[in-house]
Amino acid sequence: MCGLHMAFCRLIGGGGKENHTLLWYTRLHTDMEVCKMSQTIDKYWRSFCQSKGMPAGTAYSAFAFGDSAEMADRLGQLVLSGKKTGTSGAYDHYAEEPLPEKGDYQIVLNSQGEPLCVIQNTDVDILPFREITARHAEKEGEGDLSLTYWRNTHWHFFSKYHTLELEKEFTEDDLVVFETFVVVYPTTV
């Protein structure tokens, strides 16, 4: 295994923010490919920090949306187009990691582990699934932007995780972490 493999894991984790998408990355990529991704992500982050006059040691995480290569690419493109300005995750997915916070920086990756952009959280809401609003759904930028579409797709996604990983049923009362973000780099998107 390449020595940078662990560095990539830390980048994905952002100092403990392990992201479940790392699992499909490791299945799709060899250790050497993961090492190259780590170097590419680090270079991208340094370029961002330099452009903003920030210390290169500023905390960040890197992730790809969803649980598949197709989803990572599709949702990443929605962010680049400006259509997607929010994302959500089931609260229980954060059992062993810190919750996202306002001001957090994240590098959005495509399915090949290549940086697409840097986003920064402008708000983080924690609320029951049943209280997600049409405004939240529209920020997700997916499908027809409706609350009905959001509820159907996310119910399936969250339920699958709860059943497979937590061995419990997802309910309307389960909490959702909703992040609202802006693209901060590149600023030409």
UniProtKB/TrEMBL annotation:
Domain of life: Bacteria
Pfam families hit by this protein: ASCH
InterPro entries: ASCH_domain, DUF984, PUA-like_sf
ASCH domain mapped to chain residues: 63-185
SUPFAM superfamilies with a match to the protein in the record: PUA domain-like (SSF88697)
Protein name from the UniProt record: ASCH domain-containing protein
Organism for this UniProt entry: Vagococcus acidifermentans
Lineage of producing organism: Bacteria, Bacillati, Bacillota, Bacilli, Lactobacillales
